[in-house]
Amino acid sequence: RRAKEGSAFSIIVVSEGAKQLGGHVTVKGVDKKSGVELLGGIGDRVGRMVAEKTGLDVRVTVLGHIQRGGGPISFDRILSTRFGVEAVELIKHGRYGHMVCLKGQEISAVTLDDAISKQKSVDPNGSLVRTAEAIGVCMGR
Fold first, then answer.
1. What are the average pLDDT values for consecutive 10-residue runs of the chain, which has 141 residues?
2. Do residues 17 and 39 make contact, with C-beta atoms less than 8 angstroms apart?
C-alpha cells in the first residue's frame, strides 16, 4: 500500500516480548547467573518474515543499541511502554503520519510535518555536546 502511495520506505516497530497469538516470545539466551530468559531477536525474525513475503530490502535496527550506551533503566522501560501504547492508539484511530513524543511529562503525538517543520539546533558548546563527547560520542570536531 505504501509503495502505491509513493512512499519508498515503511517503519515497523516491534517490542521485545511481542509474540504471535498463541505463540512464544523470541529468546536470545539465558542469563548465566540468574537463569532468566533474555528476550531479543524479534526484530530480526519480523524482518525476515517481511523480506520473505514482500521481496523488499529490510533493515533491522535495535533502538536500544543506538539510543544510549548501556542497558535500559526503569525510566527507559516505562517511557518505551508509554510510547508503544500511544503508537497503537494512533494506529487504532487511523492517525497515520504522526509520531509519538514526550512533552514535559505527558505522552503526545505530532504530525511528522510539524516534527520537522523547523530546525532544532543544539548548542555546540552546551552541556549536551560536552556530555556526549565525555562518553566518547564523536561530534565531528
1. 76 81 87 87 91 91 68 85 94 95 95 88 90 81 75
2. yes
Find the distance separating the first CA and the last CA of the chain, reported in whole Å: 43
Grid coordinates representing 84 are: 508503544
Dump strand ranges (E) for 2-127.
27-30, 37-39, 98-103, 106-111
| Cell matching residue 21 | 497469538
pTM strictly above 0.85: no
Rounded to an integer, what distance in angstroms lies between the CA atom of residue 46 and that of residue 14?
Answer: 8
Distances (CA, A) of 29 to 18, 35, 78: 16, 9, 23
CA atoms within 13 A on the CB side of 15: 13
- Please say which residue of 10, 44, 60 terminates a domain: 60
If asked whether residues 34 and 72 sit together in one domain, one would say: no
